[in-house]
Amino acid sequence: MADEKTADEQMPESAQARPKVVRVLVVPPGDEFVPDALPVEAERPREPLDVRGEEDTRPTRPLEVLDEASRHPAPLVVLDEASRPTRPLEVLDEASRHPAPLEVRTSPEPDGAEPDGAPAHPPCVVDCALYIDGVRQPGYRHYAEAFAAARESHNGFVWLGVHEPTEEEFAEIAETFGLHPLAVEDAVKAHQRPKLERYSDMTFVVLKTARYCDHDELTVTSEVVETGDVMLFIGAEYVVSVRHKDACRLVGVRAELDERADLLRHGPWAVFHGITDNIVDRYEEVVQAIEDDIDEVENGVFSRQATDVQRIYHLRRELLEFKRAVVPLGRPLEMLVSGQVPSVPLEIQRYIRDIADHQQRVTDSVAGFDDLLTSILQADLAQIGIQQNNDMRKISSWVAIAAVPTMIAGVYGMNFEHMPELHWRYGYGVVLLLMATVCGGLYRGFRRSGWL
Fold first, then answer.
1. What pLDDT, on a 0 to 100 scale, did the predictor assign at position 98?
2. Are the C-beta atoms of residues 141 and 159 closer than 8 Å to each other?
3. Is residue 407 located within the same domain as residue 369?
4. 315, 373 in Cβ contact below 8 A?
5. Closest CA to 233 of 266, 277, 188
């Protein structure tokens, strides 16, 4: 290596600036590698090399390997991980002549990616997966194909995730899974109260999502709580989740559940547990954040800092919106825990009971916050009333003090001829002294009484 470095240093700068020629040597298994025998030379392509897997049949420009003798292009075949040769493709640097292994691999197609020729999902579909015995099956499947496979399997179901579908997009999905038209209408229009409805062999559940919006300072225009909707169609072999708005994304929920095969073996209701548990956990995060905002407002009310009543009222309105999302959820959870829905497995009922406990704690906190904000609002209004009374007393005190010199000046300002004090030599000084004495006495009296 020392000789090679010396040779490079002795080369002229123009030669060093030239790009090095890279040769590609393909060594079949069992053959010996001979550095001096380089049968082919690879010219650097002018377009980016596009390496794709076997299953990808999209047209691409192959890397052309030129035979040194014939100069006829021959396509370079790139093998995937399963069929690649025992010895890696070796790249020889022209200067060093030392082989360096170059591994060319093709990554497998990710689950859920749509291969060419397969029926496409509507744009509203986020993800579709088939689960058998709690394990997600790899590969892409159209939701109709996955639903058919789930019905044929012993313990399988389909989880189809949909985001803000239109009536046209959701019509085909509803027909495939046999969803009730009334539930489909609620799922498309959204803005529903949390509820649970049963339609023969299908259960329709509406959940309200909530997310706290971070802000530097609570103002009248600040959005405190963002809400959304998640609708679940739950059947024996399927669960269709419809999400509106971005208050609670379900990507993380699906990733967590994919690692819980023991839970997913219980069927579609395990998905209900995972989604509801995540939503209620978000509720608790919102409660903690709102509590901090209420503490900030409360400190401002009972300090000498100016407090905006509209700000308190705005926070109370945001809390009311959050309350509408949390409180009605208690009834559906109670129905599931009490066994009023026979399709819920007993093990899942135990998990739902834990969710119901968390939801009840959030409900109690929201009720406490509502009462506290009402008290803070009333206290702030009382503080404003007291401040106004103090201001009125100060104004009244100064008016009374100013009335004395005004009255005296008004008396002596009358143009009567027979007013002895007008011609008195010391009259002017005595009147001024009288005004100052009376005003000083009034000021002292108002100060002692707390009016000034």
1. 45
2. no
3. no
4. yes
5. 188
pTM: 0.65
At 402-424, the pLDDT tens digits run 888 888 888 877 777 777 777 77
Tens digit of each residue's pLDDT (9 = 90 or more) over 70-97: 444 444 444 444 444 444 444 444 444 4
How far apart CA 281 and CA 278 sit, in angstroms, is: 5
Q: How far is CA 69 from its chain centroid? A: 62
Mean pLDDT, residues 374-380 taken together: 86
Dist CA 384 CA 392 (whole Å): 12
Structural domain span for residue 442: 391-449
- The residue count of the chain comes to 452
The residues with which 130 forms a beta bridge, in sequence order, are: 158
- Contact yes or no for 280/363 (Cβ under 8 A): no
140 vs 114: CA distance, rounded Å: 6
Place of tokens 């392509």: 45
**Which two tokens mark 225?**
């709580």
DSSP 383-396: HHHHHHHHHHHHHH
* CA–CA gap between residue 253 and residue 362 (Å, rounded): 21
> 82: which 2 tokens?
């399963």
52/8 same-domain check: yes
Whether 223 and 355 share a structural domain: yes
Decide if 235 contacts 143 (C-beta within 8 A).
no
How far is the C-alpha of 333 from the C-alpha of 353, rounded, in Å?
8
320 CB contacts (<8 Å, ≥6 apart)? 370
Give me the helix-helix angle, 346-412 and 330-337, nearest 10°: 160
Backbone region of residue 339 per phi and psi (left: phi > 0; alpha: psi in -120 to 50; beta: other values): left
Residue 196, token pair as written in the block: 């649970």
What pLDDT digit, counting tens, does each position of 219-236 carry?
A: 767 778 889 999 999 999
Task: Assess whether pLDDT exceeds 70 at residue 305.
Answer: no
Between β-strands 225-234 and 202-212, what pairing exists: parallel, antiparallel or unpaired?
Answer: antiparallel
Indicate which CATH number applies to the domain containing 409.
1.20.58.340
Residue 110 falls within a domain, yes or no? no
Rounded CA separation 242/244 (Å): 7
